Amino acid sequence: ESLELSKRCGIDKVAAMPMGALGVSDAVSAVNWLVDLAGSRDDMYFYCWYKPSQHKELMEQIDTLKNHPLFLGVKIHPRSDFAHLDNGGYDIFMDYAAANDIAVVCHTWDTEPMNRPVSFERYLAKHPDLKIILAHMGGVRSGCIDSLRMAREYKNVYCDVNGTLYSELWMEEIVKMAPEHKFIFSTDQTFNAPRPILGKVLLSKIPDR
User: Helices 55-65 and 91-99: crossing angle, nearest 10°?
Assistant: First the structure.
């Protein structure tokens, strides 16, 4: 249903994360299901998943899938996985991601202490070239301001524009606060329909190029 809605909105291909991996569920099985689905279609790429509670199994899975032609990176969601960016649980994974040039997509929300955007700065101090996509740009306004600063200061920190839905910031504002190539279009389906953020982008007063 989400894929068909995306197509009706003019989105031809999607990057999907395994929703079934959230929380206490078996992330390995959820990723395998998503990989099979992506392989059966011509309109989908996939993210693997990592959470400290399934460290061994998920690291083995990531190592197996990292060269798959539809693999984009690894998603983490500290809040939903009862983890914390600041307590060391993600250290080994971040070292691995940096060593293997793997993009890490993280749910960020500035009012949630376990996944604030600024928590990535300690990883970036160790691995300046680590590729980070700050999903939702920290959600609230303070988190978006921090995310935009980090996108300016760090070579491979990127922001998804879905965060502007919650931040009280206009598209016309954020494109002046970080280089244009640091923004990634995203919808956060199935939590959000794609139409609100698509309209916010298409109706903004920013040039196409």
Answer: 10
Q: Is 35 left (phi over 0), alpha (psi -120 to 50) or beta?
A: alpha
**Long-range contact pairs involving 168-177 (C-beta distance under 8 Å, separation at least 24):** 168/141, 169/141, 169/144, 170/204, 171/200, 171/201, 171/204, 171/206, 172/204, 172/205, 172/206, 174/137, 174/144, 174/148, 175/206, 177/145, 177/148, 177/149, 177/152
Q: Summarize pLDDT for 119-164 with one digit per residue, the tens.
A: 999 999 999 999 999 999 999 999 999 999 999 999 999 999 887 7
b/e map 90-127, b = 16+ CB within 10 Å: beebbebbbeeebbbbbbbbbebebbbbbbbeebbeee
* Structure token digits, residue 96: 């691995």
Sole residue written with tokens 């101090």: 125
* CA nearest neighbour of 150 among 173, 182, 180: 182
> 44-49 and 157-160 as β-strands: parallel, antiparallel, unpaired?
unpaired
Number of H helices, E strands in the chain: 9, 7
Q: What single letter denotes the amino acid at residue 198?
A: L
Among candidate residues 108, 83, 69, 68, the one with its CA nearest the CA of residue 27: 83
**Which residue type, as a one-letter code, is found at position 51?**
K
- Degrees to nearest 5, angle at CA 11 with 8 and 12: 100
